[in-house]
Amino acid sequence: MISSMISTGRSGIAIAMLSHCNNFRMSFQADSSINEEPEKVIQQLELAIEKLLELGKSRLEEENAGTRQRSTSLNEMSK
């Protein structure tokens, strides 16, 4: 899968993110007067996305643990 975006108009920075099934693609374009090292921007975006994924996974695990505890408590009460 190839994804790209051509920015038109007066935008100096264009960031495109595409998620489909298990694929995630990111594209970054910037005028050289704004940013001459797009690789660094992509690296920072990737780090931020990884941190958000970790946070989401930990919150989901906490919610699942809470659901299991509530289920156990309800089962004990019904005995």
Describe this structure in words.
It is a single chain. With 79 residues, the protein is of the alpha+beta class. The protein has two domains: 35 residues, no CATH class; 43 residues. The chain has one helix and two strands. It is elongated, with a radius of gyration of 21 Å. The mean pLDDT is 77.
List its traits.
2 strands, 2 domains, alpha+beta, single chain
Would you report the number of β strands?
2
Q: How many domains is the backbone divided into?
A: 2
SSE pattern, N- to C-terminal: EEH
Give the N-to-C terminal Cα separation.
Answer: 55 Å
Total helical elements? 1
- Which descriptor suits the 3D outline? elongated
Main sheet strand line-up: 1-2
Overall pLDDT score = 77
Radius of gyration: 21 Å
Helicity, in percent?
Answer: 40-55%
Brief synopsis:
The chain is α+β, with helices and mostly antiparallel strands and 79 residues long. The chain contains 1 helix and 2 strands; from the N terminus they run ββα. The chain has a two-stranded antiparallel sheet with strand order 1-2.
What's the structural blueprint in terms of helices and strands?
Blueprint: E1 13-20, E2 23-30, H1 38-77
Antiparallel strand pairs: 1-2
